[in-house]
Amino acid sequence: MISTEYAYTMKVNEKVDVFGFGVVLLELTTGKKANDGGEQGSLAEWAGHHYRSGANIPNAMDVCIRYAGCTDEIETMFRLGVQCTANSPSSRPTMKDVLQILLKCSEQTLRKSRLECSMDFR
Amino acid sequence: MRTLSMPLNLKELVLSANQFTGTIPNSLFQFENLTVLDLSQNMLTSDAANDFGRLKRLEILLLSGNNLGGPIPQSLSTLKNLSRFAANKNNFNGSIPTGITKHVKILDLSYNNLSGTIPSDLFSPSGLELVDLTSNQLDGQITGSFSHSLYRLRLGSNLLSGSIPNTIGDALGMVYLELDDNKMVGNIPLQLGNCKNLTLLNLAHNKLEGPVPSEFGNLEKLEVLKLQENYLSGSIPSAFSSLMNLGILNLSQNSFTGEIPPRLFNLLYLTNVNLEGKKISGKIPSFPTTVTSLIELNLANNLLIGTIPSMTTSLRTALNLSHNQLSGSVPPYMGDLTGLEILDLSYNNLSGQVPSSLTGLTSLTVLDLSYNQLSGELPSFGPFVSVISSGNPGLRNITEDNKGASAGTFVGTSVEKRHTVIIFFMSAGTFVGTLVLTAVAVYLCSKRISRVEDADKIIDGQLAMNNNHTSAAEFMKAKREGWRITPFQALNFEVADISHRLTEENLVGSGGSGHVHRVTCTNWHNGSTTVVAVKQIRSVGSLDEKLEREFESEASILCNIRHNNIVKLLCCLSGTESKLLVYDYMDNGSLDRWLHGDYVPLDWPTRVIVAVGAAQGLCYMHHECSPPIIHRDVKTSNILLDLEFRAKVADFGLARMLARAGEPNTMSAVAGSFGYMPPGNDLFWGFFSEFHSHFLDFCTVIGLVATV
To answer: From CA B535, how far away is CA B627, in angstroms rounded?
Structure first.
């Protein structure tokens, strides 16, 4: 009885959304689905494992954007996705922090798209 | 669905809430060890060749929420272990297979196109627990006997005729009985008084006649009694005064005569009372101060005489005494009913001055004093109270001029600390220089919506006046059709038409909580077209309590939020069978389709812009809303894209207010989507605190699990 109550009663704070948003970032960078983590189960678990194992991040990226000339930004977003999906809520960033990093990412992407890789997206 | 390659000894297969299309593959029926097969909430279409009879070990079969058609397979009756079968919300037609409940204990075939008569032995098998046939085309009489174990029977919104059988009295275990919206005739059988476990009895909208049996006084557990819209006559049984648990009582639109039982209003848990009718006479009994839960009282259109009695000060929301023969003055103590939002005393013989204490009704939005004999000077009410005072020759109204200015726009209320203030701007056209017109409205958000929800359970769209409306015509139109509109923006299209426009052709998506349609509306100012997304949530009876809660949650949160990256909710329509949430339509659909669907993949700059937009929306909700709002179900299918690929966060069904930033809010139901759910430690902290406050919620959840 207790365990059922356990399962139905839970407390959350906004870090739950940060987790969900982290998964969205991982989907945007890898092109994989949220539940598509192979042996690791979910995408979040897979990405965490991939990141900690020191594997090559660009290899994890969505082929549709892999050669877009913005590898650094894609990597930044992937890493942010991994941070957002940390197991412990307190070690996830706030949405404020997330937004700051993404805005920088966006600035760089825009600058690049104007200069070098404007023809080359996708 | 394609052919499945899985081990043949598979026992449980749960594929619910995906987007599977096509027919149920025949290869599925080779998994003869299956005990649980859940294909619910997909987009599967009909297949006459299905062969469920082969799945001999099947215990649970769930096909709900698909587009399956054809007859319900007769072979299901032969499955000896099948105890639960749900095929609700499909397009099944034909008649109900005979003997289906021989083994099945829980049967849900609601919201289909089933026709013909109900098999006479359907309700009789011992051990039968629940039958839901709501909203089909079933006709003929209800016959046969009723199992003692049957606790929930829903037959509403069919074409059933004949009288309610006396054998209903055998259903000693019955807790919920709904026969509303049929064509049933004759008297209500006194044997219903045997069903002492009844907590909800809904016989509304039939052709029942004669008196209400006094045996109803035995139904001590009754909490909801809905008998409105019949031809019932005689007096309201004084035995009602012994229904100690009664909360909702709707006897409106009948032919009851005689007086209101003197102790009726002594019932401690009464929340909604609607006795609107034609011929109830005598005086209004007084309210003891012990009654603290009353939300809405409607005694309109009767022959009531005497003075307005003292009211319990806890009466909230709406008091309607209009169209009676009440006399005397408006008692000054009515100014103590501070929770009141609507007060309608029109069309009586009230005289004397309007007490200035009424200006102390801080929640008031509508005050109708018209067509009485009131005199003196009308006290000055705030700009947010819509006062109607015509038809009182002796009454001077010095604020008349102001009133004229705001007519046809919004009515509002003053502010309480729990209420949220929103300023509505009527904007004409988005791109062609936005023109801000008028109308400041203050909307009582969460509080009102949840309360109206309760009220709706009894009133069924009849008292539709406690809302803000963009125009009187719109209001009247919606009211006639039983839709209650709650606008959150100034609307420039015919809202009431939307309900007719939900067709299969414009269905653009289906989720766990309902369908989404794309509807084109005509702008009534310039004839141009506006496209809106309409999310329809079926909301009949308590089976759908969860959806009801989702709706309330979504509406109450969205109406407070104004942000470029959050989907704009235009209005809500609440009807008797469903609720509609009307949003701005997002041309480019949801992000998941662009990432995982058949579309051309998004380029990187677009992905960054989408991520930034969604982050801005969430950032706003977490850090700029007070109290902060947690979405709780952030995922790519909830991030929508407009024509310019601007991200808009949608679907606040699971969002909840946070009391204070950083302080965890307690939740009471499992939420979230697989893949997006954080690991367990997020969910389980703080379990031991607040155990008590969640025990009830817990019971509700168990109740939901236990039903279908």
So the answer is: 26
Q: Does residue B629 or residue B280 have the better pLDDT?
A: B280
Strands (E), B267-408: 272-274, 281-283, 296-298, 303-305, 317-320, 340-344, 351-353, 366-368, 373-377, 386-388, 394-396
* Lowest mean pLDDT segment, chosen from A11-20, B54-63, B437-446, B513-522: B437-446
Kindly determine whether residue B607 and residue A65, on different chains, have CB atoms separated by under 8 Å. yes
Lowest mean pLDDT among B260-264, B297-301, B579-583: B579-583
The answer to whether the beta carbons of residues B123 and B105 sit under 8 Å apart is: no
pTM of the model as a whole? 0.53
**What does chain A come to in residues?**
122
Q: Residues B84-88: contacts with CB within 8 Å, 24+ apart?
A: B84/B59, B84/B60, B84/B708, B85/B60, B85/B61, B86/B40, B86/B61, B86/B62, B86/B708, B87/B63, B87/B112, B88/B64, B88/B112, B88/B132, B88/B708
The model's pLDDT over B630-671, given as tens digits with 9 standing for 90+, comes to 887 889 988 999 888 899 998 765 444 333 333 344 333 334
| Residues of chain A with C-beta less than 8 angstroms from the C-beta of B619 | 95-96, 98-99
Q: Given CB atoms, is A49 within the 8 Å cutoff of chain B?
A: no
Give the model's confidence band at B177: pLDDT under 50 very low, under 70 low, under 90 confident, else very high.
Answer: very high
Interface confidence, given as ipTM, is 0.88
Task: Establish whether B682 is a catalytic residue.
Answer: no
Q: How would residue B141 be classed by pLDDT, with cut points 50, 70 and 90?
A: very high
pLDDT in the model for residue A3: 25
Nearest to B687 among A9, A23, A44 (CB): A9
On whether any CB of chain B is under 8 Å from the CB of A14, the answer is yes
What percentage of chain B reaches a pLDDT higher than 90?
Answer: 36
Cα–Cα dist B358/B349, whole Å: 19
Candidates B594, B609, B676, B698, partner chain A, best to mutate (most A CBs within 10 A) = B676
CA A42 → CA A22, A62, B679, distances in Å? 12, 17, 11
Rounded Cα distance, B87 and B91, in Å: 9
Which pLDDT score, from 0 to 100, does residue B311 have? Answer: 77
What is the token pair recorded at B44? 């599967």
Question: Which of chain B's residues have a Cβ under 8 Å away from the Cβ of A17?
Answer: 618, 621-622, 630-632, 634
Nearest to B615 among A19, A21, A85 (CB): A21
Active-site annotation holder among B633, B651, B682, B697: B633
Q: Are A17 and B622 in contact (CB under 8 A)?
A: yes
Closest Cα in chain B to A95: B619
Cβ pairs A/B, distance under 8 A: 190
Query: Is A34 in CB contact (< 8 Å) with chain B?
Result: yes
Residue B242: pLDDT above 80? Answer: yes
Q: Which residues of A touch B635 (CB under 8 A)?
A: 20, 23-24, 34
Q: Which A residues, 51 through 90, put their C-beta within 8 Å of a C-beta on chain B?
A: 62, 64-65, 68, 70, 73-74, 77, 85, 87-89
Residues in chain B: 708
CA distances from B3 to A36, B6, B26, B31, B431 (A): 21, 10, 8, 12, 50
Start-end of H helices in B198-273? none
- pLDDT for position B666: 37
User: Percent of chain A beyond pLDDT 90?
Assistant: 32
Q: Are strands B529-538 and B578-584 parallel, antiparallel or unpaired?
A: antiparallel
Residue of chain A nearest B686, judged by CA positions: A11
pLDDT(B687) > 60: no
Residues from chain B that touch A96, judged by Cβ atoms under 8 A, are 619, 622-623
The backbone torsions φ and ψ at residue B21, rounded to the nearest 5 degrees and listed phi first, read -120, 180
